[in-house]
Amino acid sequence: MICIINKHSGSVPPDAETAIVRLLNDLEQPADILVCDGENLKAQIADAISQRPETMIIWGGDGTIACALNQAIGTDTAILPLPGGTMNMLHHSVHLSEAGWQDILAQALLHGHKDPLSAGVVDGNRFFVAALIGNLARMADPRESLRHGNLIEAATQFTDSHAFDTSQQFRMKINGTEQVKDVVAIGSFVPRHDRGEGFEIGTIIPETPLGIMQAAAEAALMGWRDAPSINYERAEGFQISATDREVIPCTLDGERMDLSATIDITFERDVVSVISARR
Predict the structure, then answer these.
(1) Does residue 180 sit in the same domain as residue 53?
(2) Which end of the chain is more exposed for a tag (fewer CB within 10 A), N or C?
(3) What are the tens digits of pLDDT across the range 149-191?
(4) Phi, psi dihedrals of residue 106, rounded to the nearest 5°
(5) What angle do CA 131, 136, 142 make, to 5 degrees?
(6) What is the pTM (predicted TM-score) of this model?
(7) Domain shared by 107 and 60, yes or no
(8) What's the average model confidence in pLDDT over 2-30?
(9) CA nearest 20: which of 38, 47, 42, 2?
(10) DSSP assignment of 200-221, as one string?
């Protein structure tokens, strides 16, 4: 077993290596520990996976964990993610728990489940939890600046982000049916292995910025699948074209990027294995 720690991830503590070695010894679960600085992370993960460990613990943020998942595809290595970022979307999706890293690690190693994990692919990029497509994805830029303490930059980015612009129009082809919608956000969610195949898709079609806030409140209170302001459907794949923009703003598992004006989102079933602490 190999454990990789990204010491520069948002919530990984300074004493991470000492703390995890102590816990692994207590659990009688020895592992080779590799502390990464982030600069050569991809190469270090690739080298570790080439050693063919049965299990690889990844302690870091969503970007670090996604990097490991991508490189473990096609191998027999199962990834055990620990929460070390700010959003920790992949951690929550795999473990279905808000517990701290110590409890997650102990439960996963002693009583864990080896589960398959599916993915979505867009413009050659994989996501394992969710893609947020549309202007609301621009909110990720000021969020990152706030995380690094850049308040002035965050305020400027928020003002310039057009995140609440309700005028962007998309042409969507879902399940063979073409639709034209004025949407501020399209959410594409990868279901767990026990929740069926294909994406769960939610679209927010507000007429005003107040409508966006209403949709967000409904999603928080009822769950986004049941929120009246969010249209919900399922699909094996779909296509989106921006009718008035050269790029489409997007976040994939929380990572911000701009995509081409026409994108295909495809579903990959059970591409990699994870060790889950779910009970």
Answers:
(1) no
(2) C
(3) 443 433 333 334 454 555 567 788 887 777 766 666 778 888 8
(4) -65, -45
(5) 105
(6) 0.83
(7) yes
(8) 95
(9) 2
(10) EEEEE--SSHHHHHHHHHHHHH
